[in-house]
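Q: Given only this backbone (93 positions), what sequence would you predict?
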């Protein structure tokens, strides 16, 4: 019984690690929809470009920032820091 419990705990932990979510970078699904949003300002030097989330998404006010390291993060385009940053960041092609 202990072996099965330990195996389930290991699988659960592995699944959590595969999400690769940290406080500065929240996962964006391949459908270009945002489900979670960063709360803090992302430094401009880390952002490569941005794109708007799909209008078919439940949270259509999302903006997807593509980072220089390859990650993507979502932010609300109505946040003050996001509106101010858009002048300094190019749209993704």
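A: Predicted residues:
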């Amino acid at each position: 019984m202990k072996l099965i419990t330990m195996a389930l705990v290991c699988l659960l932990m592995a699944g959590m690690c595969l999400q690769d979510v940290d406080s500065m970078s929240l996962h964006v699904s391949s459908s270009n929809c945002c489900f979670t949003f960063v709360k803090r300002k992302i430094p401009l030097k880390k952002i490569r470009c941005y794109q708007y989330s799909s209008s078919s998404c439940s949270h259509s006010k999302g903006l997807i920032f593509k980072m220089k390291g390859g990650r993507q993060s979502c932010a609300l385009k109505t946040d003050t820091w996001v509106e101010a940053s858009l002048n300094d960041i190019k749209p993704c092609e």
